[in-house]
Design a protein that fits this description.
Rossmann fold, Alpha-Beta Plaits, seven-stranded mixed sheet, four-stranded antiparallel sheet, 11 strands, 19% strand, globular, disordered C terminus, binds magnesium ion, hydrolase, trehalose-phosphatase activity, magnesium ion binding, metal-binding
């Protein structure tokens, strides 16, 4: 399917009881912070997400690049169905196999440490196999970080680079958010529902494409020209407003009340 023109994207419809909701986390539910550890959910978000999960019969999942244990920390005491590490970790479906961390990964990690010493503010996030290199606090280092990752990826058999917002990540080649959605959609309580995927970044395009292919809806947070998302919400505040409105009866779906 061709990318959708930004001018043509509108607000997503009200969810109904037949939907399954897949939510990216950073940049979708959480505003970005200088480092990944400094994020927090806005006040009042947790009760809304809890209520919406109940209304959808439990078919609400987080789909994130963060590991599951971090998602559980941010969303505590909730333990939602979730895909962590872009789907390498799955709660609610069998996990996808990942390539074993290799000597080449150690070499990349060591090179990244040297680069971070030269460019203070570059953050190396070690996710146990996967590595994410962030430059939100050192924007001028972005080209160097990307070049370093590109120079090493050829030695990392079974891995690919996942670019994102001020980050590049080394992830298993057979893992992405679209496959995570497909895996969860094969399981109860997701199976048979209409998938709705909400995300902001390039890695979410896999989720958008998977949701579209299953007859669902895709929602881009923020604005980007080269996206396959059908619908649009301008920022994280608009996402939380939309989620809250979806805990209230919609104009046409009385059964959902
Ligand atoms: Mg995101």
């Amino acid at each position: 399917m061709a990318a959708v023109s930004p001018q043509r994207r509108v607000m997503p419809p009200h969810l109904d009881a037949g939907c399954a909701l897949f939510l990216d986390v950073d940049g979708t539910l959480l505003d970005f912070a200088p480092t990944p550890d400094e994020v927090a959910l806005p006040e009042g978000a947790l009760p809304v997400i809890t209520r919406l999960s109940e209304l959808l019969g439990g078919a609400l999942a987080l789909v994130s690049g963060r590991p599951l244990h971090e998602l559980d920390r941010v969303f505590a005491p909730l333990q939602l169905p979730a895909a962590g590490l872009h789907g390498q970790e799955l709660r609610g479906a069998p996990a996808m196999a990942a390539a074993a961390p290799s000597q080449a990964m150690q070499t990349l990690r060591a090179a990244a440490v040297r680069l971070a010493q030269q460019h203070p503010g570059v953050v190396i996030e070690d996710k146990g196999g996967n590595i994410a290199l962030h430059w939100r606090k050192a924007p001028e280092a972005g080209a160097h970080v990307t070049a370093l990752a590109q120079a090493h990826i050829g030695q990392l058999a079974g891995y690919r680079l996942q670019p994102g917002d001020h980050v590049v990540e080394v992830v298993p080649a057979n893992v992405d958010k679209g496959r995570a959605v497909q895996a969860l959609m094969r399981q109860a309580p997701f199976a048979g529902r209409r998938p709705v995927f909400v995300g902001d970044d390039l890695t979410d395009e896999y989720g958008f494409t998977a949701a579209n292919a299953l007859g669902g809806w895709s929602v881009l947070v923020g604005q980007r020209t080269n996206s396959h998302a059908i619908y649009h919400l301008p920022d994280t505040g608009a996402v939380h407003d939309w989620l809250r409105r979806n805990t209230e009866p919609g104009p046409t779906n009385t059964e959902y009340a």
